[in-house]
Each structure stands twice: as C-alpha cells, then as structure tokens.
Amino acid sequence: MRDKSRIYPDARKGRGAPSNEVSQRFNLQDREIDGDWLDERDIIGDGAAKLRTDVTIEYPKSIISYNQSPDLPFDRSINAYRGCEHGCVYCYARPTHAYHDLSPGLDFESKLFAKPNAADLIRQTFAKPNYQPASLAIGTNTDPYQPIEKRYKITRQILEVMLETFHPVVITTKSNRVVEDVDLLAQLAAQQLTAVAISVTTLDPQTARLLEPRAPAPARRLEAVRALSNAGIYVHVNIAPVVPGITDHEIESIVAAAADWGATSISFIPMRLPHEVAPLFEQWLESHYPERKSKVMSIVRQIRGGKRNDPDFHSRMRGQGPWADLIRTRIGIASRKAGVGKAKLKLRTDLFRRPIIKGSQFELF
Hints:
By secondary structure, this protein is α/β, with parallel strands linked by helices. It contains 13 helices and twelve strands.
C-alpha cells in the first residue's frame, strides 16, 4: 500500500476521503484546500494541517422524509445529522453535501450539521390528526450514532418520543454507541416497536481503519450486537457494502461472526458509487490499493451493468450479473450454515398514541 499523502497532499490522517477534489455539481465553486475549515495553527507531524470537525446548528421546519422506493422496507425516515464523521469512503450519502455548496469529499466528514429541534418536530408531526403511524427509519442517510451524538443526543431524544407515543422505529448504524440507549430500546422492543441493524463491512481492523476511519472497530460492533440481543432487542447485521476485491473474501466469516454474536438475521448490499463517490473511491484505491484498482473497478462495472453506478430501482440494491449472483449465493449458503435468515420482523403500529402538545386544545382534556 502507498502513502496517500504522496498522491493527494491534502489527505488527512484519520479521514476517509483523500481530497475535496471531485467533480462539482449544483454550481459548486472550486474551493481552496487551505480554507477556513482547517485548523490554522494545528499542525501534525507531516506538516499538513489537521482537519477540524465543525458542526453547524440548523432548525428545519420539517424532519420526516418520505419515499416511494420499491427497494426500501419503509416509506419514511429521519436524519438527525447531515454529513458523517465516520468518514466511510464509499458512503452513498456523500453527494448530498453538494446541495449545501460543500464538497462530498473531506467536507462531508468534517463540516457537519445537527438538528437539535428534531424531537420537537416529530412530536408536532405525530400530533396531527391525519398522521398515520408506520415504521420510521433512523440512519438511512447519515449515522445517528456518529461521534457528535455524544454531545447533542438528538437520536436519544427522538427515541424518547418514540417511546412516549409507542411509535415503531428501526435504527441503522455502524456504531456501538447505540448501546448507550439500550434502556429505551429495550422498552420499545418489549412492545415489538423496534429493531436495530448494525453494518459490518469487514472484520479486519486495518481494512476498517482505511475504509471507515472514524467508525468503531468491527469488534466493537459485534459486541454491540451481543449487548442488544441480550437485552431482548431484534438485531440485524447488514454486510453493507460488500466491496469487491477488498472485503468480499470475508463474507462467510462475517456471517458466522454475526450469528455467533447474536444476530437474528443478515443481509448485504453491493457497493454503490453514485455521483462524486465514484471518483473519490478511485482516489482511495490509488492511495491504498493501487495494484488492485483495475480489478476492483472492473468487478464494480460488472455488478453495475457496465457502469460505476446503477441508480435503477431493484438492481441498485442487489447488483446484477455473475458477480452479484455469486455474492448472493455465498451469503445464502453461509446464512444457512450459521442459522440466520433474512429479516422478517414486523413492528406494531396499533399501539400508537398521539402526543399532547403544550398549549394545544387537546391539553385541556
């Protein structure tokens, strides 16, 4: 493996994206690497400025996003944060930062947005007479338990509203920090109102440090699987994404480990490289696995119909062609051997009760 700083001098130790230099959409302006989002005086050993994580507070007027995608088992979701400090280089959510005139590269993992009024907005939405409950997904875009959750606790506040209203909720995360909310999750689980999906990409700590530099180590995630399972919470492990030529050789090991640590079900998603993620991932390959770049991208194109990404419904989550079929077959065989299956949990909606908003007419009753 090469030293990525020799190829991309603006790369930062402990960060996933090698640079901010990706094709720019939405009229993004070219930005200087030494802009005000760098610590001006914080210099690390190699002479490069250390990248600071900045958090901007925002107060949206609505918080629930709805979708009609046939690929997803839910029609509504919440994201407490924009951007993600975990820095996973393959993250399909990176392009969303372009809407803020920020780079999907280093900006995505260092310039974050938090929504501290999320719980209040949810409560107001649930209180509307025409609101009908259905499973609400948290963490489908950016991780609800990334490091800044320790300070803001927005995800925990959302879960408190879920418990208050007996509303079903599903969490997706790469972090063992989810265990800090096991008290709330266990109460929700006792009413069949929650499930947690933990993403495990690799079991190798070194590979994880390169792919997901600020996400908890794989061993920590498996410990979280055990802790949640022991608390009576349905735990699903998602091998997401499967990175061909980098992590696909671990499929059987990940399935076996997930089962050993208490997962009830398992699934996988082949790596997706939408928009700016594709050139960022190729930069990452040049930095860390230059000898594999050609092979990896060849397999990616085979899985994605000859392109670096396939945005079409159905195939975007499953992949296509012999490579995708092979991964699916291996997952199936390994799952049967390990005694885990596909997710079949159905959460309850019949327990839902509307919250009482302070100052509303309903507070009189």
